[in-house]
Amino acid sequence: MKFDVCVPILGFENVKEVTLEKIDDAFMRMESSNDEHISFTLINPFALREYDFEIPDATQKLLEIDEKSNILILNIAIIQTPVEDTVVNFIGPMIFNTDNNKAAQLVLSESTKYGVAEKISLYLKK
Q: Among 32, 62, 120, 125, which is least packed by CB within 10 angstroms?
């Protein structure tokens, strides 16, 4: 599924359109539509932990989100070997409106509540 990026991805401001592809129930791959060398592994944060935040009104307007919108929230993960060393960016979620194919990266102000590089091993069941 293709998405127009309405709010730039930090460090990748030239990425204007991405494709999203499901890997499994927890992971997805996001790739730039115009540069195959730019891709990210995304994870469903709700598969790992409790995760909540408010989407600012300005972002809701850009993505045309209302109470009936179908949205998908994913976080960028840096996959490591072993997988327990994988880190997740919880303060920069990607927001996807699947009704109109618009996306944005949000930088949360609650940075003390979530980390930029939290080890996935903190949330895996042992």
A: 125
